[in-house]
């Protein structure tokens, strides 16, 4: 019998989900909360399918959520594509972190 995890993006089979959810701390001294902000590691997705997958995940998010993309290079073309084509993309809130030479984490926030 398969087990599933209910998410804002539908039910996902337990195991290796394509999207993980991260725990974030509150700004005040309160307890940590789970934001259900999706993280999508696209390094194993064929390059021809990456942008479509990212757009689908972004579209499925609620306003105010942030999609974190993990990639092996800085996603400048994706940033410019999102800024030009996706009205809900908050380009001023975009952030990029180089976690390792082959691991870039880009945050794509969705306008509220």
UniProtKB/TrEMBL annotation:
Upper taxonomic lineage: Archaea, Methanobacteriati, Methanobacteriota, Stenosarchaea group, Halobacteria
Domain of life: Archaea
InterPro entries, per the entry: DUF2249
Identification of the protein by name: Uncharacterized conserved protein, DUF2249 family
Every DUF2249 domain range: 39-110
One Pfam family recorded for the sequence: DUF2249
């Amino acid at each position: 019998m398969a087990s599933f995890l209910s998410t804002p993006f539908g039910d996902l089979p337990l195991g290796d989900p394509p999207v993980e959810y991260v725990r974030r701390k509150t700004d005040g001294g309160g307890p940590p909360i789970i934001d259900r902000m999706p993280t999508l590691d696209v390094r194993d997705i064929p390059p021809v399918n990456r942008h479509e997958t990212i757009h689908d995940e972004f579209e499925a998010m609620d306003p105010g959520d942030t999609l974190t993309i993990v990639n092996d290079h800085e996603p400048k073309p994706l940033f410019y594509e999102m800024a030009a084509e996706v009205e809900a993309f908050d380009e001023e809130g975009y952030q990029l972190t180089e976690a390792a030479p082959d691991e870039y984490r880009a945050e794509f926030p969705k306008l509220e």
